Known about the structure:
Helices cover about 45% and strands about 25% of the residues. It has helices at about 10-20, 25-30, 35-50, 65-95, 105-110, 110-120, 135-145, 205-215, 225-235, 245-250, 280-300, and strands at about 55, 60-65, 95-105, 125-130, 150-155, 160-175, 195-200, 220-225, 240-245, 255-260, 265-275. The protein is an alpha/beta fold. It has 11 helices and 11 strands. A hairpin with a 2-residue loop joins strand 1 and strand 2 (about 60-65). The longest helix is centred in the first third of the chain and has 29 residues, at about 65-95. Strands 3, 4, 5, 6, 9, 10 and 11 form a 7-stranded mixed sheet that branches. Strands 1-2 form a two-stranded antiparallel sheet. The radius of gyration is 32 Å and the shape is rod-shaped. Keywords: DNA-binding, Transcription, Transcription regulation. It comes from Alkalicoccus saliphilus.
Amino acid sequence: MKGAEVLNISQLEVFLRTVELGSLTKAAAKLNYTQSGISHTIKSMETKYETTLLIRDRSGVRLTSAGRELLPYMQAAFSSHRLLMEKVQEMHRMESGLIRVGTFTSVSSQWLPGIIQKFKADYPKVHFELLHGNNDEIEHGIASGRLDCGFMKLPAAENLHTIFLRRDPMVVVLSEDHPFAEKASFPVKALEQFPYIEIDEVIENEITRVFSEHHIRPDVHYTQKDDYAVIAMVEKDLGITLLPELVLKDSVRTVVCRQLTVPSFRDIGIASTGENPASGLTSAFLRCTQEWVEEEYGRQL
Length: 301
C-alpha cells in the first residue's frame, strides 16, 4: 500500500502550515514556495495515503474528515522531529566550550582530576577554568555569572541549586608514635591536651566550629598556611591537627587518622544557578560529577 511510505518532514511542514493558514497562497509565501509547489506537495501526500486530506475552494482550504483524523499524528511527528533536531544541535554545541568551576584545595587535588578525566572522555574539546575560593566567593561567582558551577560546603545560599555529593568526616591527624595512635577514636577534650598545629586558611571554618561546639581551646604551637605542610609536621610528631578526611586521601605521609568520639562532618556539594536552568554543558558536568563521586566511593565500600 502506498500509504505505508514514510512522509518526509518537509511534506509535513507544508501540510501543517497550509492547515494553519487556511490558504495555499499564504503557505507558499510563508515557506518560500510557489503555490503550485505547495499544491503538488499536498497532492503527493494524498496519493501516498490514498485519501483526500484537504478540500480546496475559493475561500481557501479546510480539512476533510480523514485530514482531521490524521492531523494530530502529523503534528506529533513534526514536533518529535523538531525536538530531535534541537537535541542534536545541543549535542553539537556541547562538543566544545568552556566550563568555569569554583573549587577549594582538597576537591581540586582529590576529585577534580578524576572528574575532568571522566568528562573529557565524552567531551574531549571542552576546556575548564578553575577558580579557587571560599564559600562566599564561589556563591558570588555563580550568582554573578562569573562561574558556571562550584564545589561548596553545604548548606549554600538559598538562591542556588545544590547537589549533595559526600559527607566528609573530620579526623584528628596523629603521628604513628602518638599515645592515641592505637585507639579506635580520639576523645574530643583531648584536642586541647597536646601541642596543636593550626592551619590558617578557609578550611579553618569547619575546624573552629568543632572547637566552638565542644568548648575546646587548642594549645597552638605552630600555624601553617598549607594543609599538606601541617601533615608533614604531624608526621614528625610536632603536634596534632584536625582536618577533613578528604585532605588526607592518598597522602604519602605516614600519619594516623582517627575520628572524634563525637563524630563531626562537613557536607560537600556542587552548586549552580537557581534562577535559570544550567546550560547543557554545565548540566552534563554536574551529572558527571555525581556519577564519579558515586563510583569512587562505591568502590571503597
